[in-house]
Amino acid sequence: MLPDTQANFFLRLLIDYVVLVLAFLATLQYIARPEHLVLSGFNLLLMGIGLIVWTGIGLSVHLYDEFRTRSFSYEFVAILKTVLIYFCFFTFLFFYCFKHYPYPRTFTLLYAFLSFTGITVMKFIVKQTLLRLRSNGHNIKNIVIIGTGPTGMTFYDTILSNDHFGYRCIGFLDEESNPHINGKYLGRVSELTRVLEDHEVDDVIVALHEPMSHQVEEIIMASEREATRVRIIADCHRFCTSTASMNFFGKLPVLTIRTSPLDDPARQRFKRIFELCFTGILFITVFSWLFPIIAIAIKLSSKGPVFFKQERWGLKNKRITCYKFRSMAVNSDTVDASGRYRQASRDDNRINRVGRFLRKTNLDELPQFINVLLGDMSLVGPRPHPIPLHQESKNTIQNYMLRHLVKPGITGWAQVNGFRGETRLSGLMQKRVDYDLWYIENYSFWLDCQIIFQTLMNMIKGDRNAY
């Protein structure tokens, strides 16, 4: 680490140490009995072990990475990970190593809560303070941009419009000048060493369009001779999303332009286990008596089967058979006069009396829990579309097929935000897809819980788009 970076790291670590020590002492003070010595040698040893372990965990989960250009949510996730692992460590310590510790085991819960609260509040305060300082011209990093083409100018415009990032452009290097760089042309790329010697530069930003390998090598060597960090903007940046990530295959860096938390097999398994448990409980406690009642009502209201089966598209664009309670008359028309797929609409004459109630309350979707047990669908995910609507949308809706990177769901982020039902109006399907992609890129277990809860609330109070 460079000197400024080291100072920043140790300052952040020191602030965390202060918070952890105060949280430790506050916990002891709250649960200790009068005869206990709060600052005993053993407690001081435990506190020291805790600080060492916190440092190791924080470094391993990237709690002390540079969050200068990222929102606080990234840092919050790192804090949460660190505290959870820290809490697990103390739980193991007390139950297996310090069984005769004089305080109740709730010590770990209270200590974890106070630590999490204190660390989060302090880091938020520090983040806001630094943003204010940078906006006022303090805590600034000086950079040189190599490249005056579209990539270099886009980067320059970004730091100009985001002064809270805390970057100041000293100037540009390129084989030719650009009239839009406001007199900041410093010379050719070969003059980098002179520029670094004449100016105090923190970072060199390589923003060349299709740079030659020998150029990059010369830039890196010249920068490192002057102890200056080099950052390279990949030429494929225009294709990247906010969830782009880089991994190493051996020694080769590979950039993934769009990622999802569900790319992680461990998260996939956890999501699957939760769905199986949740679905199993519902079948035992609710569906065992509710399904027969609905089946009898359907049979009494109209002729035909209880279940409606329809082919739809699932994970990785594979066909699945989607189950629903039948809500329409048998052999209803599925296409209109113009040959387009006929979606269910308000006052649709194909829907029977019982079916209207089922659709209004979303009870017609319950057989899709069978799809969840079969592994074709998830509880939460992008809604699968009938094949004609799918074929119609895949060629007209931007990023439509990216919905199929994950399993389709019984309910989804788009549905609880009002984008369900008929999509004939211009822009509705695109909005649905945008919400689905946001879910895929921001998945978490707690987000799934929120969507399930919102779906239940919509079922109780009624959804205006359910018909």
Describe the structure.
The protein is an alpha/beta fold and 467 residues long. It has 3 domains: 3-135, no CATH class; 141-239, 3-Layer(aba) Sandwich (Rossmann fold), CATH 3.40.50; 265-461, no CATH class. The chain has 14 helices and 11 strands. Strand 10, helix 11 (387-394) and strand 11 (409-411) form a beta-alpha-beta unit. Helix 1 packs antiparallel against helix 4 (106-135) and helix 3 packs antiparallel against helix 4. The longest helix has 37 residues, at 265-301. The model has no long low-confidence stretch (mean pLDDT 80). It is found in: Membrane. The chain crosses the membrane at residues 9-32, 44-64, 76-96, 108-126, 276-298. Its main location: membrane. This is Putative colanic acid biosysnthesis UDP-glucose lipid carrier transferase.
- The number of helical elements comes to 14
Q: Please report the total strand number as a whole number.
A: 11
The biggest sheet amounts to:
5 strands, parallel
Radius of gyration: 29 Å
How far do the termini sit from each other? 61 Å
Strand order of the largest sheet: 3-2-1-4-5
**SSE series:** HHHHEHEEHEHEEEHEEHHEHEHHH
Low-confidence stretches: none
Strand content is 5-15%
Question: What would you call the structural class?
Answer: alpha/beta
Q: What does the average pLDDT come to? A: 80
Domains (count): 3
Q: Globular, elongated, flat, extended or rod-shaped: what is the shape? A: flat
Helical residue percent? 40-55%
